[in-house]
Amino acid sequence: MGVGEDIRAAHEATQIERRLKSIAEASADRRITLVRQLHDHFVPRLVPKFLPQVTKLLSDDNPAVRHQAVLLLQHLFDLHPKGFAKASGPLAGLVQDTRMDNRTTALELLDKVARQEPKAVLPQLAKLVERLDNPQPGVQAPLLQLITDLGRRAPTAVAAQLAKQLGSRKPATVRNALALLEQVAEKQPAALARAAPRLVKLLGHRNSAIQKQAGLMLISAGAAGVAAVPRLLLRPLTARKVDPELRLHAILTAQPLAERDPGLFAPAVRHLAHDLGHQRWEIREQAALLLGIMGRKKMSLIKDAVPSLVHALNDGDDLVRTAAAKAMEEIKVSSLDYDALQKASAALESARGVLHSAQNFGVATGQADKLLADAEKAYGRGDYPKCMDYSTRAEDIAARAEKESDRVKAALTRAESTIQSVSHKGVSIAAAEALLAEAEKLLEKQRYKEAHEKAEQALLLSQQQAVESRPDIVLRGRVESPLVPDDWSVLSLELENIGGAVARQITLDFGDSFATRGQTLLHGMEATEKRTLEIEVYPKGKGLVPLTVDVVYHSFEGANFHQQKQDIVEVNDSTEFESRELFASAVGATVVPETQTSVVTRHFHIDCDNCGARLPSDFRICGKCGVRLRERVERSDTGYHCLECNSPLSLNQKFCGGCGSATPAKPEAPTSCRQCGGALEAGQKFCGGCGAPVILA
């Protein structure tokens, strides 16, 4: 390169820079003239320097200026064809230009760039394919030719770009991409490996033409040795939930490929057998044909599906029956073997179902599993009588084991529930739990009879412990001398707790017929404990008076009280009170008391501030220390009374009956208890929470 050329290049560069600056501020006509003048000032060595600035002229708002810019770029490409990758984007944008000669000229230049440097145009391929959906006049043919030429020069890269367009929601875009991919596949079928996943998805497309074209391309790719095609087809063939249309066309596509190598679709045999019972007859028909094609060369490949094919011979659709019969002919199974094969298959499936059910419930089926394995081996070698025998025996063993296991588990559940209930009452359950644990170990060893016996023993023992753990108070009493009317008599009472739990807050009530002096309230009695009480009784009535004692005691279960009440009644059969045994529970006693027991559960309790004893909420005096649990409320402090003489008044009185004074204003019923703060309803006279009387303000 001489000095003269350098001088000329510097001079021309100055002219180009001056005109490019003038273009930015000139009018449209002046811009057209300036762009034309640039043709005469460019030399090859100046093209890379000013190419970006010239490319910007393609975005001018005047179509004529854009046309002159494209012509200038063609001239620059002829001078220096390298480095036009950055100009491919703006040129691809001109494909949708409003002026036809701009569109055609831009495509011609893109075609030249693609021939010189194909990778420079590949990034614009997606945009060019989209232009095929709604092309402008004069664009369709050259655009298809451009993309086709690109596919011949760089088939793998073009196939990868076209594969992205297969996921478009526009059917026209998908059809154009498929047509271009087909031309690429003619040059290099292996290039479809990048597009195979998209092609498999298109088998479920709503457009039948797209489905068919995608299937044909997959078949050609599989025949060309693209290993990804059979592997991708197995996904819709073996999936549980798949679109029926996709499954149908996947089966149709797999049929030609299975003729070449049926082993590629061996994992789908079990699913194809299941498809023979599909709701759509087309899927049943094509699944039978595919199984026949696969079993033609190797019958053992589809042996597990033969029972389903035999069942399909009785299908309600003529085409399905014909396809099943054709498949049976292909795999050369005699019609004489149908009956035995069906029976063996049914017995084998039934045994599998029973064993699976038993195993789901945690039943050990070791022996039955061995028999089932023998049945499967017999079925595999065609020995159907032995297969049925082994299957029946395995099913019987598993069913019997499941039944016995259910029986033992039911007994264990009953025993465990009873033990937990007894445990909540504070009763010792160690012995029953030991029996229950032993029963569970026996169940694991499949010793069902012994396990059931142990579970029943645990249940009975816990029930017995629950009964024995309740308190039971027995009273024995005797008067030292005949009871004298209108006088106090001493009554000696012996109390014994013959139950298995502590009795608390024991109360003796002689009713309204007798006045009493002495201890009639006990804090508690341990099991087997005895107490002797000396109580003085005073008959209030005349003549024959029945002696009645109500024994009320409590037991704790968690935060609750269980109250037990015994009504013991003894009526003297003579005109005088005599010294005789009043209460007894021993065998051979002279008097058998009439006893009625009732149990009441109360959810509230109070604690004594003096000794800390826990007492029922309606107790007013502590049975342990004798301290009053709440202050005594005087009659004058409750209700509605006169302000002068403190006489009680009814709410409808206007004047006091004692002193004649006018009654005060009517009191309002309180809404909360003064004692415990509980809510009160209208008309209540006592608090439902603590039993305190309602005091009117």
Structural account:
The chain is an alpha+beta fold. Among the domains are: 230-333, Leucine-rich Repeat Variant (Alpha Horseshoe); 339-469; 473-616, Immunoglobulins (Immunoglobulin-like, Sandwich), CATH 2.60.40; 632-697, no CATH class. Helix content is 49%, strand content 11%. It contains 23 helices and 12 strands. It has helices at residues 3-25, 28-37, 47-56, 63-79, 88-93, 100-116, 125-131, 140-153, 155-165, 171-187, 196-202, 208-223, 228-238, 244-260, 269-275, 281-297, 306-312, 318-330, 338-360, 366-380, 384-424, 430-444, 448-468, and strands at residues 473-479, 489-497, 503-509, 514-517, 521-525, 530-539, 547-557, 560-570, 581-583, 597-602, 605-607, 614-616. A 5-stranded antiparallel sheet has the order 4-6-2-1-9, with no helix packed on it. Strand 11 (605-607) and strand 12 form a beta hairpin. Helix 17 (306-312) packs across helix 19 (338-360). The longest helix is centred in the middle third of the chain and has 41 residues, at 384-424. It is elongated. It starts with a helix and ends in an 81-residue tail after the last strand.
